[in-house]
## 1
Amino acid sequence: MTVPGLVPKPTTIHHRAGTTTVPEVISVCADLPLTRWSTRALEDWLGAPVRAVPAGTPAWFRVARSDDLPEGAYRLLVDDAVVLTASSAAGVINALHTLRQLAGPEAFAPAPMPRAEPLRLASVLVEDEPRFAFRGVHLDVARHFVPKAELLRFIDNAAAHKLNAVHLHLTDDQGWRIEIPAFGRLTSTGGWRADTTIASGPAGPRLKGRPHGGFYTANDLREIVAFARERGVVVIPEIDVPGHSVAAIAAYPRLGVDAPTVDVWTGWGVHDCILDPSDFTLNFYRQVLDTVMDIFDAPVIHLGGDEVPYDRWEGSATVRRRAADLGFDSVEPLHGWFLGRLVEHIAARGRRAGVWHEAVSPSLPTTAVVNAWGGTDTVSHCLRAGYDTTISCCSHLYLDYRENDAPEEPSACGPVLSTQKLYEFDALPPAVLAAAADGGARVTGIQAQIWTEYLDTEEIRDYHSYPRLSAFAELAWSTERSYPDFLGRLRGDHLARLAAAGIAYRPLEGPLPWQQRPDVRAICGR
Ligand code: TNX
């Protein structure tokens, strides 16, 4: 019996002779507690009920604890029985995901598939350990709201690829997606926009002609956090300041410079209407962050800090005076200073702030964790400036970019990022390793980004995400990689898993007829 190709590729896999048959009832003996989710996963994936047996009793499925294994690592032996060894819950979860892949694509179907004969597993020993401790995927739920059920499915699929963090971009110029009870207008006004830009081209932007909106209640988010936690995934919330804040300013004009009247934005890009760096704004956001920290248990709370044009600050006598009062000779340092006050607020509650790399400046505390979305030179720069840094380079890790330049590609914008280019990304070139060694700051890990300006439905998000997110998972997890080998496993096994999971992935040969967007192509002038 052949062993299915695993994605991401494990550190070592020893094929052994023989098979084991999944019994009618799976007896389980576990040194590490099996959670509600693990128990159900085992039952769903292997298609038999689980029954715990007392310690010391023979069991078909055993979970052994070994404190020698690094966090997230595991050993999975499939022989006459199954023995899983790990040092913590993360390792158990990763091992279960491997077992799921060994059980065949049926284990990815939402319902138990009838089998002609009992499920057999090929004998194998997998010894596996993650390359990066932090393996994240960012999802922009602000540009297009992602309904809760779709978000849960997204997290489930990310977890199946051994990713362990989902960074939720909850606020932007085009929408505010988290309910803050103290400031109801953030969602009643800021959660909705009048229209949406479908694409821009020689004839200018084309609008969709209907409103868009939505938001998560505190309870929705608590459910999302709990759902992710069971699967070993931490949810990092992002409240983007002081730029990308038009939705908040539309709801509470006093948050903007000179209280502007502005609507939640229907276009894309960088808006010049940014927050007023006043005490009013700081106190407002401290309260917002308190609510965020009540809901999310993530060690990192993200403050954005990207793409901040200073024109309105330069044009305002009040803001210039504020800068002068703080001893700055221009308004620019207010950017790091403003973020710094919120970084402190987050630190006071025992958490760490996250920011995008544009926030790095002498006035930003080095306790912040930075997502560097420029090239690897930006990663090195942030490390040398003393910040722990997550590799988020747009050149290789932005899944909103299109797979290739063919006119059939449905994407409305973006440079090209092929699956192969992503897979072969040299994320840790010598310069980055040297910067980490010299600066004392750490590369925390790596993150893929899914911005959703043009990804307005679940289908089109699936199309952009897969199989590139499978390639990303291997980049993040596996130390030894070969693209031809990955493609073989994709074709031979993994695409069938994605299909069974109901993911509308992009076929390797290109979009299916109904995945093309000739309407968008026409607007873009492509
Ligand atoms: C840049 S990366 C942005 C986003 C856009 C994205 C589109 C970053 C921190 N800012 O606001 O959605 O490019 O690819």
## 2
Amino acid sequence: MPTTPAFAAQSASTPLAPFSITRRDPGPRDVQIEITHCGVCHTDIHFVKNEWGFTVYPCVPGHEIVGRVTKVGNQVQGFKAGDRVGVGCLVDSCRTCPDCKDNLENYCVNMTMTYNSPDKFNSGPHTFGGYSSSITVDKDFVLRVSETLDPAGAAPLLCAGITTYSPLRYFEVRKGSRVGVVGLGGLGHMAVKLASAMGAEVTMFTTSPGKAEDARRLGAHHVVISKDSDAVTKAANTLDLLINTVAAPHDLNPFINTLRRDGTMCLVGAPDKPHPPIEVFPLIFRRRAVSGSLIGGLRETQEMLDFCADHAITADVEVIPIQKINEAYARMLKSDVKYRFVIDMASLKG
Ligand code: NAP
Ligand code: ZN
Ligand code: ZN
């Protein structure tokens, strides 16, 4: 089995450092990919620091993968050497449960995550992610990425893009919908771009006054500094859908009040500790809902990539060599990211 250079964390308290992994030889259904770019998701930080309590080490994160096909198995049609492809958060699922049959592999209880899942192919102790030079993936979990998109800017679509696209579609956002977004980081800035491309009137809630101008450039029609409670109160009863991307526990109640009757706040941010309690009356008196959403299925991820190609949408990225990854994590924890770090994987060889 080929060895591949990678970066891994060996424990919750050690920084990411060079590490060597093995990838399986491609089987008949496999696509072997040379990774050119990998986005840095806040989930990678939650895992590396074991904030959700189920990390297995060594941990090689990375699930916003873009690269070129180097080899395909003899049962693979639709991909050939040289094609630009992507891999997101999933590399396998059971394929037989009701969720898989509904093309919602992301909700399959037996899905295989791109990293930190048991490795069914036994090429390692568990799956290793995209902070590495190559990956071998079953053809059904490989996505086509348009040559018209910048590959670094396209990488974050594989998680930040689909995680925000999926609830926008599920809640039927269209021209004239009023959509709010909480938190202007990787997910938040994709939510703004996608919602505004769908024709929505977008309100951005940010704790960072320095990001207000950017929010407008990204497509927000209104910007509310969420630390200013009067400004949040003024936005009461205005929104059909609110996508909350914040990675830390915070008071949800002021945001619930920004929803109109029948509006929904969809939580995609996944803090390690619970949010403070939600008040019930503001939900009951306006038939409002609080929901959650997890990435998206493979079919919807391809639909999102095609939508982005049609609308020339990519992430705003700061490209880094992998040697700067620990610095990038420290900056993300200070909300100092505009708006996604993406690793140039050529740096791993250099
Ligand atoms: P990110 O790039 O670090 O952005 C998070 C943003 O949240 C920050 O830029 C900041 O925006 C805001 N924020 C951070 N701390 C805050 C605090 N204490 N109070 C208020 N606002 C705060 O993170 P990301 O990659 O977008 O990921 C966000 C969350 O989504 C993470 O928890 C991640 O694990 C989760 N996630 C979930 C899914 C899913 O399928 N549901 C998929 C991917 C990621 P402002 O400066 O604008 O306030
Ligand atoms: Zn992610
Ligand atoms: Zn399944």
